[in-house]
Amino acid sequence: MAAALPVTFDDVRAAAARLEGVVHRTPVVTSRTLNALVGAEVFVKCENFQRVGAFKFRGAYNAAAQLPPDRLAKGIAAYSSGNHAQATALAARELGTSAVILMPEDAPRLKREATAGYGAEIVTYDRYTEDRTALGTALAEDRGLALIPPYDHPHVIAGQGTATLELLDGTGPLDALIVPVGGGGLIAGSATAAKALHPGIRVIGVEPEEGDDTKRSLESGARVTVPVPRTIADGQAVPTPGEITFEINRRLVDAIALVSDAEIVTAMRFAFERLKIVLEPSGATGLAALLAGRVDPLPPRIGIIASGGNIDARRFAELLGR
Fold first, then answer.
1. Separation of alpha carbons 300 and 211, rounded Å
2. CB atoms within 10 A of CB 319
3. Smaller CB count within 10 Å for the chain: N or C?
């Protein structure tokens, strides 16, 4: 008999109740042009319209809100390239505490400025030569802060799953769900919700070609580490899956597709020109996989989590001008 998973559907539903009135219920966009182009009915869950511009606020707030009052009062810490940084900073502000965030030196300017704007203290590191997990853990311990990791935490995972819960509540049964994969928290929560509601649904993750650690890990049956990915999808530049996320994803995720940076840009352009939404590279990988024909066989009804839209105007124009 298989061991129980560390996050359950009840956890996702409890998170949804905790987040009610705190997070935005983000829109689902459809497009006849997109449907005709790919040959399926597609529903795009726009987490780029979530608070902080990405799905990450769901998990960060769900985790922070469950800290004991004395732990919360001492402050929280996180490590992130951007979206989880902003999410944790905002969660701290909403809950009346402080936040210290470890961010890479080359984090996108927009994400760094937004994190500081929510009131967080920022500490930087070199993502290519230093271990953010070790640094972040040491930082939290030294200052007596509660650490909220970006993905490898049951409460974070459960919070992220609420986006799929909302999606399926509006669309009804889907044949497939396409989800961007970084450390695996979003897809772990998504798969937990989707498989509980519709056991036959296919859950497909998408990674950038240069950061295929989850694909390799699922194929080998054990966590694999790759060099820190150099990709425009900075939110997915993770070298290895989380322990908890991998435990869930190896049992619930059906496949992983890979997309190139060029295909990500094509998806960003399509989202802007046809769907009238702005997606950051990491937020566009699910759409990129669909447009590039990476989903095979193609099911008739497909949901996509467009996970975020945090990109400044100059970088957006630079990428689309390629």
1. 29
2. 18
3. N
Parallel, antiparallel or unpaired: strands 76-79 and 99-104: parallel
Instruction: Quote the pLDDT of residue 237.
Output: 86
Annotated catalytic residue within 45, 53, 56, 303: 56
Q: Token pair of 118, please?
A: 């929510």
Of the residues 207, 212, 261, 280, only one is catalytic, namely 207
260 noted as active-site residue: no
111 is catalytic: no
CA nearest 67: which of 165, 134, 140, 5?
A: 140
Residue with tokens 């975020």, as numbered in its chain: 308
What's at 316, amino acid-wise?
F
Q: Which residue has 């425009």 as its token pair?
A: 232
Number of residues that this document lists for the chain:
322
Q: What is the pLDDT of residue 19?
A: 98
**Packing angle of the helix pair 243-252, 213-220 (nearest 10 deg):** 60
Q: Which of 53, 136, 184, 211 is catalytic?
A: 211
pLDDT of residue 1: 57
Whose tokens are 């502000």? That residue is 93
Name the stretches of the chain with pLDDT < 50: none
Active site residue 307: yes
- Active site annotation includes 207: yes
CA dihedral 165, 68, 116, 310 (to 10 degrees): -10
Whether 213 is catalytic is yes
Secondary structure (3-state) at 195: helix
Q: Which of 81, 190, 217, 282 is catalytic?
A: 81
Residues 312 and 108: beta-carbon distance below 8 Å = yes
- Of 234, 247, 307, 309, the catalytic one is 307
> Which residues does residue 205 pair with via DSSP β-bridges, in sequence order?
179, 256
pLDDT of residue 131: 87
74 catalytic, yes or no?
no
Rg (CA), the chain: 18
